[in-house]
Specification:
CATH topology of the largest domain: Glucose Permease (Domain IIA)
Number of helices: 9
Structural class: alpha+beta
Helix content: 25-40%
CATH class of the largest domain: Mainly Beta
Largest sheet: 11 strands, antiparallel
Order of helices and strands: HEHHEEHHEHHHEEEEEEEEEEEEEH
Shape: globular
CATH superfamily of the largest domain: Glucose Permease (Domain IIA)
Radius of gyration: 29 Å
Number of strands: 17
CATH architecture of the largest domain: Distorted Sandwich
Strand content: 15-25%
Length: 421
């Protein structure tokens, strides 16, 4: 009897053991299944994507709930051009789809490589993280300056005049990212200047651009109730009625900053500096965030970058002093400000002497510049003007030098191998 009792106990114990193993195996497989399903979600976990025919960075960014700037930084791309068949790394997103401003150091990374990846400087990285040296270690968390989450603005539906304006812009070839890049380095086309000269009331019904209806809402600041000064030909109205200058034309390393940065609180109305036509309104130009470009009857181009929200569409005709955007902190920006550019014949000019009224410093004093007037008959510009290529951005110059050093080292190694043979 004792032998039978022991054998029955061993059999029952074996059955319990097999049952426990089956239960644990099922739990493990269930956990793995849920893990695979979670990582298969395109919005959070998919880490790579193979580019298909007809894809663009804007379309891929919208599909994976990220931004074009994050895709460029994650894949070390210098332009938005991609080829079918190439594979892109999709950046991770934080909770709730928010972009993280923290970088976790990986093996082999240096502070200079991290700075180049996020298009910032080593000095700004050290100041943001209170680093005393360039030494970093694996798994260290670095705060990236200027990578605050962009303010996502829900677009209001276009009015009927804006729909007509957009169709008119398409007929002229305005409104695309290609147009914006053209105006940043080349003079505007004659038909664009001609469209800026024609008032909307004199156009025919097919291409007329009506003004904003009386019932529409607009952003009005207390300063707007004051009558603006009478416009002087050859000058430009100050785009912000409050605020102070942060950086002037020709500042920065090597004088690369060919624009004027003006600080004001977020949401401050941005005014058109002169009458003209909207050549571009969007956020497709890398680094500038929400961006507006105007072509004026004189052939000048003014640009307004890092906006919080654009209030005009391509093809609209705007008057001097009209509100066209709200000031913000989008794109490659370290804080809320307006990045204002004045472009003529493809060259970036200093707008400070042409502003009416003058720019103000933080203490309230006027910026000390000699006032100038841009006369149409003048052959030489009355202000400083330079091509964008004459003052390259320091990050691009550093990348070019690094590429030259690598090419020189590669040739030296090739020459050494040939000598050994």
């Amino acid at each position: 009897m004792s032998v039978l009792f022991r054998s029955s106990n061993r059999a029952s114990a074996a059955r319990v053991s097999r049952t426990a193993r089956l239960i644990w195996t099922g739990l493990i497989w269930t956990g793995l299944t849920w893990t695979v399903l979670a990582w298969s979600s395109p919005s959070q976990a998919q880490r790579s994507y193979r580019v298909r025919q007809g894809d663009s960075l804007h379309r891929i960014a919208a599909r994976f709930n990220t931004t074009v700037r994050d895709l460029l930084a994650e894949n070390n791309l210098r332009s938005t051009t991609i080829r079918p068949g190439s594979r892109l790394r999709i950046p991770r997103r934080g909770r709730g789809g928010r972009r993280s401003n923290i970088h976790v150091v990986r093996k082999g990374e240096t502070l200079s490589r991290v700075a180049a990846r996020y298009r910032t400087t080593i000095g700004r990285l050290k100041r943001s993280n209170r680093l005393k040296s360039n030494h970093i270690w694996v798994s260290q968390r670095l705060r990236i300056p200027g990578r605050e989450n962009p303010i996502r603005v829900r677009r209001a539906p276009l009015t009927e005049p804006q729909e007509t304006a957009r169709d008119f812009a398409k007929s002229l070839g305005l409104g695309s990212v290609k147009t914006a890049h053209w105006l940043l380095s080349k003079p505007p086309k004659p038909e664009w200047i001609a469209a800026a000269r024609v008032p909307p009331d004199t156009r025919d019904d097919a291409t007329s651009i009506a003004k904003k209806p009386e019932g529409s809402l607009s952003v009005v600041s207390p300063a707007e109730h004051e009558p603006p000064p009478a416009p002087t030909p050859g000058t430009f109205q100050l785009p912000l009625q409050i605020g102070h200058m942060l950086r002037g034309w020709g500042s920065g390393a090597g004088g690369y900053h060919l624009a004027v940065d003006i600080y004001a609180p977020p949401g401050t109305p941005v005014h058109a500096s002169e009458t003209g036509i909207v050549a571009y309104s969007g956020h497709g130009v890398s680094g500038y965030g929400w961006f507006v470009m105007l072509v004026h009857p004189s052939g000048h181009v003014t640009a307004y970058a890092h906006n919080r929200q654009n209030l005009v569409v391509a093809g609209e005709r705007v008057e001097r002093g009209q509100v066209i955007a709200k000031l913000g902190n989008t794109g490659l920006s370290a804080g809320p400000h307006l990045h204002f550019m004045l472009i003529f014949d493809g060259r970036h000019c200093d707008p400070a002497p042409l502003f009416r009224p003058k720019l103000r410093q933080k203490n309230g004093d006027a910026v000390k510049v000699d006032r100038a007037v841009w006369e149409a008959e003048a052959g030489k510009p009355p202000v400083r003007c330079l091509a964008r290529s004459a003052r390259p951005h320091p990050h691009r110059a550093a990348l070019a030098r690094q590429k030259a050093r690598r090419e020189k080292a590669r040739r030296r190694r090739a020459r050494a191998r040939r000598q050994k043979r």
